Amino acid sequence: MIGNESYVNCTIPELILSLEKRLNPKRFLHTMGVAQTAAFLAVLHGESREKALTAGLLHDIAKPFSDQELMDFCKREQLPISEAEALAPYLLHGKVGARLARDEFGVKDPEILNAIEFHTTGRPDMSLLEILVFIADYIEPSRDRQQKLNKRRQQAVADPGKALVKILKDTVKYLGQTGAPVDPMTQKTLEWYQAKAAKKNRKE
Ligand code: DGI
Ligand code: FE
Ligand code: FE
Fold first, then answer.
1. Most exposed: 42, 113, 125, 187, by fewest CB within 10 Å?
2. How would residue 184 be classed by pLDDT, with cut points 50, 70 and 90?
3. In sequence order, which residues have a C-beta less than 8 Å from that of residue 19 and are 6 or more positions away?
4. Atom of ligand 1 nearest to the CA of 187
5. Burial of 179 (0-12, 13-18, 19+ CB in 10 A)
6. Minimum-distance ligand to the CA of 145?
């Protein structure tokens, strides 16, 4: 096992083996990249490396589910489906992933579960762990389509709060360009962190 603490009901190598079976090769590589990047950022910014690693490994565990499977899962488990999620059911893979992490992999830590649940939209007032997993999802080494990746990677190391605002802004802009509906949670998160940044700038 890596580290001293385990937040899952198996060893980390066992978890990785089961991810390799469940995810397609590209998603598996992405998942390893997020886990590695989240753990690296956690060490740099004083978060738990094991928690970041675990959340990174499990964040896209529900990605293989089809839209219909995600909707059915939520109904069966009585997980709420927002209007935005009904329009774009892939948004549910965070919420469903958190439930799978809890029920299949024995994750009890609420911060890890939140980092998995909110890794796509973010949410106002995230914990540092949630922020680092959110950023890691965007900048991990196998990502290549996102805008300004080098700059975002640099910011993730130097100033994760800044990286977060920029990533949220670019995501909302990208969604606007593609015509995809913006989840009110994504919009709310952007506004909350922009207001926080403005407050900080006024103080300086
Ligand atoms: O699961 P991943 O591909 O690793 O990454 P993700 O969970 O961040 O999902 C990425 C996609 O989600 C990307 O195409 C942008 C999209 N997304 C993020 N916020 C929203 C959104 N899509 C919609 N429709 N609405 C959002 O608010
Ligand atoms: Fe995802
Ligand atoms: Fe991801």
1. 125
2. very high
3. 28, 31, 57, 61
4. 27
5. exposed
6. 1
Q: Which atom of ligand 1 is nearest to the CA of 137?
A: 4
Q: What is the domain partition of the chain in residue ranges?
A: 12-203
4 confidence band (pLDDT: 50, 70, 90):
low
Q: What is the dihedral of CA 69, 110, 91, 8, to 10 degrees?
A: -50
CATH topology of domain 12-203: Hypothetical protein af1432 (1.10.3210)
Residue 2 has pLDDT above 60, yes or no: no
Query: Distance between CA 25 and CA 171 in Å, rounded?
Result: 25
Report how far ligand 2's centroid is from the alpha carbon of 60 (Å).
Answer: 5
> For 92-124, how does the pLDDT look when each residue is reduced to its tens digit (9 = 90+)?
999 999 999 999 999 999 999 999 999 999 999
Number of other CB atoms surrounding residue 162 within 10 Å: 16
Looking at residue 1, what is its pLDDT? Answer: 43
pLDDT at position 151 over 80 = yes
Of 44, 64, 39, nearest in space to 54 by CA: 39
Return d(Cα 39, Cα 41) in angstroms, integer.
Answer: 6
Pocket-forming residues, ligand 1, beta carbon under 6 Å: 30, 60, 63, 88, 91, 119-121, 137, 171, 175, 180-183, 186
